[in-house]
Amino acid sequence: MPDMEELLYPTKKERVEDRRKEQRHRKLQDEFFDHPTLTTISRLITQGQFESIDYPISTGKEGGVFRATLPGGFRAVKVYRIGNTIFKRLPPAVLEDLIREAGAHQRARLVFAWARREHTILRKLAAAQVRCPEPYGYLRNVLVMEFIGTDGVPAATLQEMVVEDPGGLYEELVEQIRRMVHNAELVHGDLSPYNLLLWEGKPVFIDVGQSIPSAHPEASGLLARDVATLAKFFGRWGVDTSPEAMLESIGPIRSASEAA
Ligand SMILES: Nc1ncnc2c1ncn2[C@@H]1O[C@H](COP(=O)(O)OP(=O)(O)OP(=O)(O)O)[C@@H](O)[C@H]1O
Ligand SMILES: [Mg+2]
């Protein structure tokens, strides 16, 4: 039983902590759960996509990813922020696509197109047997996907992990990129240890909304950048590789003219 005194007169530390909690809560509400987004979430709940949103797994510049609960399981819900979205991370070609699709420069409509794009790309990857969260649906700026984790605990990114078998993981990753480029015909375009989850000992691609078709003229440049980042990362783990060696294992991508 808590002491009555303690309840009535919280310590300074408790009051500060309470205020912090309140601020965090308000920040989440302001940044992600504005009124239209809450309406969207309630429609997704009505559709049976999930029953409740539990907590943020991550909050970033462009959005937040939340764990959601469903009877008997979990889902990951990505809420794209409408207010402060920065489109700078997108390759120019993707931004052009979004503008074309949204039919306007309106920020909200661009963001909706971006969420839909990530859903479409996840579907293509899943169809090509590339390890990624299975997409379950989207509405406006909210994307619902498979929760990658175990017993409700989200999987860590490669960045946060101590990799036990870097060589094996490297081989698996190269195979996954190969499938992505040749079977799904897509180049991720923002590959880094932050956008790869390690789950059941294997990599899972996330954050795929900026991916572009491998036949696109910008694709080989983006692939070169992706592998350079990863070769550096695995090099630090003692894997003997280079961007060139990685590209060689992945195999050349078809150029736009070959694809046409
Ligand atoms: N399907 C998922 N299951 C579990 N965790 C996930 C899932 N998708 C994303 N996450 C977690 O959320 C984080 C952010 O996801 P993602 O990179 O897609 O969002 P983002 O808005 O682009 O964020 P950032 O700006 O930080 O890259 C990931 O690093 C990962 O920890
Ligand atoms: Mg990310």
Measure the end-to-end span. Answer: 74 Å
Radius of gyration: 21 Å
The structural class is alpha+beta
Query: Poorly predicted ranges (pLDDT <50, ≥5 residues)?
Result: none
**Biggest sheet statistics:** 5 strands, antiparallel
Q: Figure out the total of helices.
A: 9
How is this structure best described in words?
This protein is an alpha+beta fold and 260 residues long. It has a domain at 153-259: Transferase(Phosphotransferase) domain 1 (Transferase(Phosphotransferase), domain 1), CATH 1.10.510. The protein contains 9 helices and 12 strands. It has helices spanning 4-8, 12-31, 35-46, 92-102, 107-127, 166-182, 219-236, 243-250, 256-259; strands spanning 52-59, 63-70, 73-80, 135-139, 142-146, 149-150, 153-154, 156-157, 186-187, 196-199, 202-205, 212-213. The strands form 4 sheets. The protein has a 5-stranded antiparallel β-sheet, with helices on both faces. A 3-stranded antiparallel β-sheet has the order 8-10-11. Strand 10 and strand 11 (202-205) form a beta hairpin. Helix 7 crosses helix 8. Bound molecules: adenosine-5'-triphosphate (ATP) and magnesium ion. Magnesium ion (MG) is lined by residues 194-195, 207.
